[in-house]
Amino acid sequence: MDIDAWVWWLIGAVGLGIPLVLTAMPEFGMLSVGAIAGAVTAGLGFGLVAQVIVFAVVSVALIAVVRPIAARHRDGRPQLATGVDALKGRQAVVLERVDGSGGRIKLAGEIWSARTLDSGQAFEPGQQVDVVEIDGATAVVM
Hints:
With 142 residues, the chain is α+β, with helices and mostly antiparallel strands. The protein has helices at 5-23, 26-43, 48-75; strands at residues 91-99, 102-107, 110-116, 128-135, 138-141.
């Protein structure tokens, strides 16, 4: 039983697709597409050298072009701040005098306990303050 070269290339493509599924490494998928291109080349009657060259060129081109685009797309997504992280950097209104030992502010429609970042600083009711961080249930402001 003599198996055509294009069948071997398809077997190779499936073989490269298995680690893609198991490891979630997209490079294996790009190599698998290269193997499919090699199978097409073999099906068109080209020799082994042409098949290997097509496999290498398609695989390297996909890795060189698609991978950086995918990485840029993945890294370029804005991170959505939630919970207390979403409160950092927001402005609040002082309700009760805030100093290094404590006080109260209205932050995002809620009343929070607060203290100043600099213990020597104080804010009077009605002043706007910036939330620097959230320490437990206390907003640290400046």
